[in-house]
Every structure is written in structure tokens, then in C-alpha cells.
Amino acid sequence: MSSPTTTRPRSMPARAVRLALAATLLAAGVLTGPAPAQAASPYERGPAPTTAILEASRGPFATASQSVSSLSVTGFGGGVIYYPTSTSEGTFGAIAISPGYTAAWSSISWLGPRIASHGFVVIGIETNTRFDQPDSRGRQLLAALDYLTGRSSVRSRIDSSRLAVAGHSMGGGGTLEAASARPSLQAAVPLAPWNTDKSWSELRVPTLIIGGESDTVAPVASHSVPFYTSIPASAEKAYLELNGASHFFPQTVNTPTARQMVAWLKRFVDDDTRYEQFLCPGPSGSAIEEYRNTCPSY
What we know:
Elements: H1 11-27, H2 51-55, E1 63-68, E2 79-84, E3 92-98, H3 111-116, E4 120-125, H4 134-150, E5 158-168, H5 170-181, E6 187-191, E7 207-212, H6 224-230, E8 237-242, H7 255-269, E9 288-293
Parallel strand pairs: 3-4, 3-5, 5-6, 6-7, 7-8
Antiparallel strand pairs: 1-2, 2-4, 8-9
């Protein structure tokens, strides 16, 4: 299968077009009843979502993986690709994920098959060095996406207009850098992000930031929260703070993190509004210290 050549419109402009068309038809007397229900996204993949599906250790898609040698790529240090084995669903969105400072992909590798099993192609990257700073990690995330869509053996499975980035710690800071540098991305998910730049007013990519209440490496008060508040509401954003969680919460299987990541990616990479129920009003319970969001408004 080849990737579509059309560019997917952003949600808000598409809504504006629909509203303008409806207003025109109403003025012309063509529409006399209530507006028709919004059509399902052509990018919906998998069954109707439930809490049980999102909290399971694997989603509805069987997956496979393959290693990527650092010798076969440029711009990043290789890694592992995880992808749905189904060939009957069309193409999938894709996400590149970076580990944190001094860490290897193996430190957060559980996220690869977890996210891929919900209908995404995932590349977990190794960085060029263990000490790369956020700006470098951001460039490496984008290089990994370019490799995925341009040269990888799974490129035919990917819709190159539906891409996202994520990362832990300095990889989370790199996620913000990548989203700022490439506004065509559909979603960004920084996990316990660290960055010396505190203002992201230029960011236009829908961004979910997940922080840990007890993080002493990248304290939420000086990292995650300022990052979140600086992103304009028009970009669509959410902030999830995990109760009592340290800086290293992404390094062990963490259901609230996985649940919200998948829901965010489904909503903004796949335009799948079935997942809005998990974003608005959002998660609650003893594992959640705080949740803020703009809620997609349509």
C-alpha cells in the first residue's frame, strides 16, 4: 500500500469550513432541520474504545517489531520499530519516542508495543549520545520520523501526514523542540519533560504533558506547569500530574500514562472523536493529582 498524497486538514479549520457551509445552506433554505451528525473520521482504527481496552496491557491490534541499526540511519542512533501486523485497516499514524538523559530506549520500551497495539507505527529511538540535550533530541525525533516515512521497511503502512512525537525527561524537552520546529505534527506527548526554555507560545501542535508530583529532577512547578501554561489554548493542550510520581514514572508500566497517551494520539493523530470521552473531563482517581485541559471545542 502507498501512503496517501493528500494533506489532512487541521481539526479547527475543518470545523470552520463545515460551519460556514452549514450557514450558507441554512441561508439558502436548503437545511431546515438540525445539522447532520459529524461523519466518522476516515482514520478511525479499531473497535469503539472502552476504559477496559485502554487499560489493558495490549490494545486490539497484533504487533511485530524490528530493530534499526545506527549504521543504517542518519540523524539519530537507530532504535526499534513496532507496528500493527494488520493489512486490512489502511495506513496508520506514526510516533517517534525518545528516552531521557543518559538513558537507552530500553528504559521506556514498554510504550512501544503498548501504543502500537492501538493502531500506530512506533519508533523508539536510541540517541546519538546518552548526553544529548533537548534541542538535539528534538532534531533526532524528526529525523526518525523522516526515516520511518521515507526509507523504513514499514513506510507503506504509514500515513505521512499523521505523525507525532513523545519523549521522557530531556526527550520530553526534545518533544517540545520537535513540535515547535515542525508545526505540521499532529500531536506531542512530553513525559516528565526537562528544558531550560520555559516558554512555548509559538507551539501549535496539540500537546499532552504528563508530570510527576514528586519529581525532583524536573519539578513540575518549574518545568511541566510553565510549559503547559505557555502553550496557547488554541493549540489544544492538556496537563496530567500523577499523584506521588517521581521523575522516573515512565520507566515502569504506568496505566494512567498509557491510557492518556493513547487517547490523545487517537483523538489528534486519527481525528477519532470517540476518544474525547477520555479527555473531557479527563481522568480522576487516587493516581491523579491534577488534570487540566482545554477540551477540544467543536
